[in-house]
Amino acid sequence: ARKPWPESMDTWSHPRHAANGNPVSHDTSVGPPDRVRWVAAALEEVEGLVSEGGRNFYGGELARDSFNGLRLWHHDLMADKLNEADFALPRLNYDRARPVASDKYVFAVVKGTFSALDAATGELVRTYAGIEEPDEIIYHRDVVIAADENRVHAFSTETGEELWAQDAADGRNLAAESETVTLLRGRPKRGEKTEVLALDLYSGKLKWQRSDFPWLDQVYRTVMHDGQMAFEVSSLSDHDAGNALHLASSETGQLVWEKEFAPGMNHNRQARAMFTDGDLWILHGGKENTADKEKTTRSVIEVSALDPKTGETRKTLPAGLAHCFPPVATPKYVFAGVLDLTDMESGEVLANRITKANCSRESGWVPANGLIYTTPKHCTCWPMLRGFVAMAPALPDGQNAARNPAAELTFPITKGNATPDPKATDPAKTDWPTYRGDRWRSGSSASDGPASLDTRWTAKLADPDSIPTGPIPFDCRENPYVKGLVSPPVIANGIVYVTRPDAHEVVALDSATGQERWRFTARGRVDTPPTIHRGLCLFGCHAGYGY
């Protein structure tokens, strides 16, 4: 059984939200982050995320559950290996096709071949014939469209049958809305003119084409929305010059209006168009006249809502300075700055410094599924929450017990059958009763070390066949706080205590023989050895319980 999908939630199936290229999520459940829904560790920086059907697909390619972060599968797109033990998440190149997702499939390039993977398992479903390695992919309705170096191809998502193909040298900037597909083609460096084409989604029939716009060679992305096309000309540098929007009709190709402006970013500046609720939003400001250092100035970072039909400014609000990632939006907020959300109604800027977006030309944050996602980064701007992160808005008033005064909080206690020994003594000075030795975490002991390191005993804590397999143990092995399947030991009063984090266990062994004294299974991961104090074994688990 599956819960019905909330109408207030949206997905993010393409690098820029959807096939139309408009980087705006329709998710009205997303709000300023107040809670961490889940976090998973990472060993490397990851750029690129799409989300569909309750699954997040990272880089090239790791799948996680959108709502709890559990690892589902990994498929190395470069090597075509599924769930291999030596998996390292491949980086995505800007000049190669990025994966896009539907509820059933992930469309991607697998070892140079255009392919569809099962979104639930990562297994190869089909490959598409008659196309070279594509540079761009979009999915719209029941059609998947891909552009290689010489042609644009459209395929049925269900049968894999090719519907049509169109000659397009260096076909790029694919976008689709309703029953129209638009693209650019032509190689200016070889003396070819850049053209923009509009084709029928199902037949490939030409609707119109133009090559007379002098700025077509500089277009970085196109956006389709409500019968209009926004051509984004972006410098992709620190400079303000060379950034503009050109608006045209997607039905006729007729130019409507143009606007040059300095995008409100530090690096990789993009003149990005964000359409929502009848407005076209832009982020602007920052350094201006950057070509001449002596004349460089800095203007206020703001977002403006423009009339999509005329380009006239309807309202302007404060915003945060984007670093090396472009803005995105929802119907309620514009995301800019580090993690600055501009309320489109009130103009209030809600900032949260718990983390920041990842460096990306597509989307540093992804607002979807009622959450805000960020990907692992190696940014050193300041200490921040790292890894794969999902952040949630505040709970409604009265539903968040953590907001209550401390005196009003209750922590239920469940008593066990054991009775503390009133005569129990403290561990000896030569013991090691807690992680890193003592309450000061000194990492030192008053005990004399052995003259030689000879093995006294070895204890097998579990049968190797009982160790779970599957995708989740990969995350356990990549946990930065637990190195291996067994924690460091603590020793007190003749007993050695260790934890098995992946098994949620605490195990006690005789320090002289290695024989097992007892073991206990907690309600969650125990990633740190216990503390021994006056006959008590004290520890906590990730499920929020202390023992």
Chain-wise SSE layout:
Elements: E1 33-40, E2 49-52, E3 55-58, E4 62-65, E5 71-76, E6 81-82, E7 100-101, E8 105-110, E9 113-118, E10 124-127, E11 136-140, E12 143-147, E13 151-156, E14 162-167, E15 172-177, E16 180-185, E17 195-200, E18 206-210, E19 219-225, E20 228-233, E21 244-249, E22 255-260, E23 274-276, E24 279-288, E25 297-306, E26 313-318, E27 328-329, E28 333-336, E29 340-343, E30 349-351, E31 366-368, E32 371-374, E33 388-393, H1 472-477, E34 490-492, E35 495-500, E36 505-510, E37 516-521, E38 531-533, E39 536-538, E40 540-541, E41 545-546
Antiparallel strand pairs: 1-33, 2-3, 3-4, 4-5, 5-6, 7-8, 8-9, 9-10, 11-12, 12-13, 13-14, 15-16, 16-17, 17-18, 19-20, 20-21, 21-22, 23-24, 24-25, 25-26, 27-28, 28-29, 29-30, 31-32, 32-33, 34-35, 35-36, 36-37, 38-39, 40-41
